[in-house]
Amino acid sequence: AVIGVVGLGYVGLPLAVEKAKAGYHVIGFDVLAHRVDMVNEGVNYIGDVVDSDLKQMIQTGQMRATTDYSLISEVDAVAICVPTPLDLYQQPDTTYVEASGSEIAKYLHPDMLIVLESTTYPGTTEEVLQPILEASGLKVGQDFYLAYSPERVDPGNKEFNTKNTPKVVGGVTKTCTKVAASMYRSVLEGEVHEVSSPQIAEMEKILENTFRNINIGLANEMAILCNKMGIDIWEVIDAAKTKPYGFMAFYPGPGLGGHCIPIDPFYLTWKAREYNYHTRLIEVAGEINNEMPSFVVDRAMKILNRYGTALKGAKVAVLGVAYKKDIEDMRESPVLEIVSLLDQYGATIIPVDPHVQSFKAGDKEYETVDLSTEVLETSNLVLLTTDHSAFDYQLIADHAKAIFDTRNAFKGITSIKADYEKL
Ligand code: SAJ
Prior knowledge:
By secondary structure, the chain is of the alpha/beta class. It contains 13 helices and 15 strands. It has helices spanning 12-21, 33-40, 54-59, 95-106, 124-134, 174-185, 198-229, 233-240, 264-273, 280-305, 334-344, 373-378, 393-399; strands at 2-6, 25-29, 63-66, 77-80, 112-116, 144-148, 167-171, 192-195, 315-319, 348-352, 358-361, 364-367, 381-384, 402-405, 419-422. The model has no long low-confidence stretch (mean pLDDT 95). Bound molecules: ligand SAJ. The site of ligand SAJ has 21 residues, from helix 7. Residues 119, 151-155, 208-209, 212, 216, 219, 250-251, 253, 256-258, 260-261, 323-324 line the site of ligand SAJ. This is Nucleotide sugar dehydrogenase. Keywords: NAD, Oxidoreductase. One of its GO terms (molecular function) is oxidoreductase activity, acting on the CH-OH group of donors, NAD or NADP as acceptor.
């Protein structure tokens, strides 16, 4: 059978490789020609999330990519893995889903399966995608099958990947659910959990990520309070972790990054308004998480003041700009806001990140530099914002003047010469 994957990004590319490895012929679709070219050269531009087998899948002809959506007519099933961002007004932007749906509708044929994988508000599959597909004249559940199945890619996770992570599938009709579930069972190793509608599957994904967002917000609020009370929040969390049931550790940090956790809950907030409901918990957690960058800069200012050094003119080494450890993704990274704030205060920023070459923060471009004793010794303050494994924490501890650690990254380091403080 031939499977199509629309959208060759963080979700689509690994999924396409897994489907090809399972023996399907895979056609990857993307509107970005340079991405299509890179896939057809076996070049993986998504980092560790994509299995190294991409090149082999291309060489054996098992997988190929194209910008020509008319090839949808050749596929038996298609997974839509396009972005579902929030627009400028914090409203869900489903234009990519709609555009993909319109393209697919042009080439929709009997018995075809379409699965939406993009994280979105409950109702999208049936209210937005289904009408676009049925405009073809084909009827869902009879002529073609439509389901929703959320992606659960966790960048940097060495244990769980596209293949072994359990998958939830909800079809518009029972037949749709069955057809979709059997397609996933033929590709994935993990459990395929069938639910009674796309809305259940859409909502469970939002619950997963909202759960993380709110609990990170709790950890951040506790960190702010513990700082005022002179209590080590990290020791508190490690102690709470000894409870073997009913507690799950989340940690404070410099803010909430990534293209999912900070964004997905606001899909629910937006939809809830339709029912005149105000998702207060989500909004308050969002306020707390969004406050962390300025909290970090405020703490940095206080440390520098101990040396009579104003932020203005201070040299601040910012260690780690990716949104979380050991990945190169910068999307929504809270460090971008921290860098922009430091710049506004007139600090000189020395960005260090082995996974990121250059980035834009505020309206300025930055090039990262390598970590060196020179960088450490000439900086007034070292801000540890992303706890990459590649950093030599002992070197930093020995050569930095002052360190503000937002990730408890030095927990393994016993001797720290620098003036050390953590979140
Ligand atoms: N963070 C904290 N404290 C924590 C955990 C995370 O500050 O205790 C921060 C991270 O530094 C990062 C942000 O939150 O900036 C999000 O990190 P994350 O690990 O929750 O998530 P993502 O966005 O890389 O991927 C998550 C997946 N991760 C986990 O569940 C661990 C998974 O929830 C989803 O598959 C994915 O979002 C998605 O695509 O929805």
